[in-house]
Amino acid sequence: MWWGSEPAHLKGLLDRVLLPGLTFAYHDDDNWWDKLMEGRSADVIATMDTPPLFLRLMYGNALIKRWKLQVLGFCGFKPLRFLALRPVKHGEADKPLPKWRKRIENMARTESPSEAAKKRARLKSFLNR
After folding, report:
1. pTM for the whole thing?
2. Helix, strand, coil proportions of the chain in percent (round to 5)?
3. Number of folded domains in the chain?
4. 95 is in which domain, residue-wise?
5. Residue 30 pLDDT class (50, 70, 90 cuts)
6. What contacts 62, CB < 8 A, 6 or more positions away?
7. Distance separating alpha carbons of residues 38 and 27, to the nearest angstrom
């Protein structure tokens, strides 16, 4: 997290990847859209220095809400899991690296093999459109 949002390079990547017609499609006759990524899930891993209590109480989990509602959720990704790794300032990130690595590995393994097979089938059908 950088100044309450993702860094500019990541924002630029999102602008180039989450494209109309590929990940969402606006309706011509109303203000709604189709979420073309429905049936797909996503994991967001963010580094930040914001303490959890501040993120929740002072900022209302704005970063998490934005990713869930306005970025990935807008395209239909659900469920969306968010993992915040902190602190990262002043070289403090070196100490918890093994713990963070384990948390990320656990996050990646929590999906059952049958769910992974379903996702592969959906991806294959999506790519063959």
Report:
1. 0.76
2. 50, 15, 35
3. 1
4. 34-127
5. very high
6. 4
7. 16
